[in-house]
Amino acid sequence: MSEAVLRLQGIEKVYKRGEAGEVAVLQGADLVLQKGEVVALVAPSGSGKSTLLHIAGLLDTPDAGTVEIAGEDVTGAGDRQRTLVRRRDLGFVYQFHHLLPEFTALENIVLPQLAEGVREKDAKLHAEKLLDHMGLAGRMEHRPGALSGGEQQRVAIARALANGPKVLLADEPTGNLDPATSDRVFAALMDLVRETGLAALIATHNPDLAAKMDRTVTLDGGQLR
Hints:
The protein is of the alpha/beta class and about 220 residues long. About 35% of the residues lie in helices and about 25% in strands. It has one domain (about 5-225): 3-Layer(aba) Sandwich (Rossmann fold). GO terms for molecular function: ATP binding; ATP hydrolysis activity; transmembrane transporter activity.
């Protein structure tokens, strides 16, 4: 039987826009993400997909509705609990890599593991395995500034998976890459997601990438369809 690792029910979010008044971005959005499922989130800019990802990732709170991560209702959780759930159950990949420039690729993946209490030796071995899987075995000691855009994004993906999350949330993870590099990075992402068996919700404008995922949801009038 499938296991829901992310459940959004009746999510509403309204923003106040000065003289323009209130703008309802999400209006009763529902989504269930099963373990091992890769779902494309396709919607035009400004439609609320980043807001939805931030709510799913506990970086923002809905005005109404519930958020469940791995069966736990975290809608009204305090900052400490939300931080714990993010570190334990969620991985994030953004359009821009946000790697720490003063650290090597390997160190960027070791650091989040150390924050979770993993021994340095074990963290390094795991980081090496992830980077090797992403085709970066020969680039581990390079700092981000010495890596290409595609290499930087592959490091960012490996970092997002370093602590073994249950859910990966990605916001246009290949959006700033050229088409050929985008295809290679996305293929590496899908391989790693499939191997680890986690669930993934990936926002993309690219219909070819969306077609490679298990299913596609779109935002229409603040609801997911």
